[in-house]
Design brief:
globular, single chain, mainly alpha
């Protein structure tokens, strides 16, 4: 079978979605910290969490499209570590520098937080129970990296099972993820929650599979969509059975996440998605440029634009925005380009290369 290549329109749509999500998360955090998110006029700024869910779907889509035929070797894990950790390490250094220049590093530094964030076990305890550790020095956007890294780690095993039995594997993923969320409701813990969110990521992967198979409606991934609807219903059950604490915290937060992921998939495979792809193709070049540094923007914007004392004035905020762009470029595309690729690293490690 000939390899299916994503069309230019789809690539442009993916780039636009990733760029828009990264910019929106920045606007969301700046708006909330400056009080712009209050009242009806602030309503458009309150959906930063949903933008991260878009990242999960995009990640599943792109990892499946790019790695489905080569995720069975050590090279896959090296590529995923090489993708996540350089920018994460830069973010940790920047956060440390920000708190040092603020004069508050000594009182806020925690070796445990640093260690567990390096292990990608962080989440936000103010929003949900069962969290092991908050992100190092309060860089809240790093919460999603613990989920992303877990998804990367289990993908090869799930993919291998899926290749042997596609329907059975997707059904098993949906059931396990739903049961994991129900177990989280009963006994909140970090690992059950991450396991439940894998279905969101897997639906992104199944959207890629459906598209590459030629499907142009969500009927092409009906089983995955149905299971995501089941998970959404389970999260609604949590809202009904547990104390409602607000729209932005557990248990309503997970209902928002799962419901939005379901909505994004349904819209993406609808005529609206095709119209969006046509529009996105007109902005392909700028979207590609922003998308290339979107991960760097995501992990670096919070300490630079929110936490540093310099950003409290309009001029200081503008200066930090200007600084964010080259730092984001350095943290992601630059380091990703200069670090050795798996083939070169394997050659260096090979005894025969001596």
């Amino acid at each position: 079978m000939a390899k299916v290549v994503l069309s230019d329109r789809v690539i442009a749509l993916l780039d636009c979605a990733r760029a828009a999500a990264a910019i929106y998360v920045v606007i969301h955090h700046v708006a909330l910290t400056r009080g712009w998110g209050n009242g009806l006029t602030g309503a458009p700024f309150r959906f930063g969490q949903e933008a991260v869910i878009v990242f999960f779907l995009l990640s599943g889509f792109l990892i499946f499209a790019n790695e489905k035929d080569r995720a069975t070797s050590l090279g896959y894990y090296y590529r995923r570590i090489r993708r996540i950790y350089p920018a994460l390490l830069v973010a940790l250094v920047v956060s440390t520098a920000v708190f040092w220049t603020n004069g508050t590093l000594a009182e806020n530094f925690s070796l445990r937080d640093l260690r567990l964030t390096l292990l990608n076990l962080q989440d936000i305890s103010a929003l949900k129970p069962g969290v092991l550790v908050d992100p190092y020095l309060g860089n809240d956007p790093l919460w999603s990296l613990s989920y992303e890294m877990a998804f990367y780690l289990v993908f090869p095993a799930v993919l291998a099972a899926w290749k042997r039995g596609k329907t059975a594997t997707t059904a098993a993923v949906g059931i396990v993820c739903t049961l994991a969320y129900l177990s989280f409701l009963y006994a909140p813990n970090h690992f059950s929650l991450i396991a439940s969110y894998f279905l969101v990521w897997w639906c992104g992967a199944m959207a890629a599979e459906a598209y590459m198979r030629g499907a142009r409606s969500f009927a092409g991934m009906a089983l995955a969509v149905s299971l995501l609807a089941l998970l959404t219903a389970a999260s609604l059950l949590g809202v009904i059975l547990q104390t409602y604490a607000g729209p932005g915290v557990h248990p309503f937060l997970e209902f928002r996440h799962f419901g939005v992921s379901l909505l994004v998939i349904l819209v993406g495979f609808s005529p609206i998605g095709r119209i969006a792809a046509s529009i996105a193709s007109r902005f392909a070049k700028p979207a590609k440029a922003v998308s290339a540094i979107s991960y760097g923007i995501y992990v670096l914007h919070y300490p630079l634009l929110i936490q540093t004392d310099v950003s409290h004035s309009i001029g200081g905020l503008a200066a930090m925005v200007i600084l964010l762009i080259p730092l984001a470029y350095f943290a992601d595309p630059y380091l990703n380009r200069v670090l050795p690729r798996w083939e070169g690293l394997k050659l260096r490690l090979s005894p025969s290369a001596a």
